[in-house]
Amino acid sequence: MEEINGQQRWGTRSFIKEKYFQPQLSPEESVARIRQTTEGLREMRHMLETMSWRYVMFYIRLKSAYLDSDLKNAMSTVPDDQRKSYVKTANDVVDNMSELDRYVRSPKVYESYLYYEKTLKSLDELVAMLA
């Protein structure tokens, strides 16, 4: 992973930089960022338990903003015979994150936990395919 000034290429600390001046990543860097997103979501459990909805919403929207491009970019690392299942799992990830965002906004506690777990499960399946 290439580092610039001690940070990964995607590791800008500014939302504006990450949103509007996002560098083009290699497929390997996209896979690494998907793994980082998975770990970040896993560590977010305490925010759901304390019902810190605003922080959860911010994190989900920030990660969803670039997850689409990462999923498309990382597909080139998947063998041809697994692409169909990769696409299905990637679609599940995007759908589950959208539903999680919707229920966190409401806020509906049970549904938020349910889609949090579904999102983690589908991200774990996706990371296993990318390994």
Automatic annotation (TrEMBL):
This is Uncharacterized protein. Belongs to the PsbQ family. It comes from the Eukaryota. InterPro entries: PsbQ-like_dom_sf (IPR023222), PSII_PsbQ (IPR008797), PSII_PsbQ_pln (IPR054099). The keyword Iron does not apply. One of its GO terms (biological process) is photosynthetic electron transport chain. The keyword Membrane applies. SUPFAM superfamilies: Oxygen-evolving enhancer protein 3. Keywords: Chloroplast, Membrane, Plastid, Thylakoid, Transit peptide. It is found in: Plastid, Chloroplast thylakoid membrane.
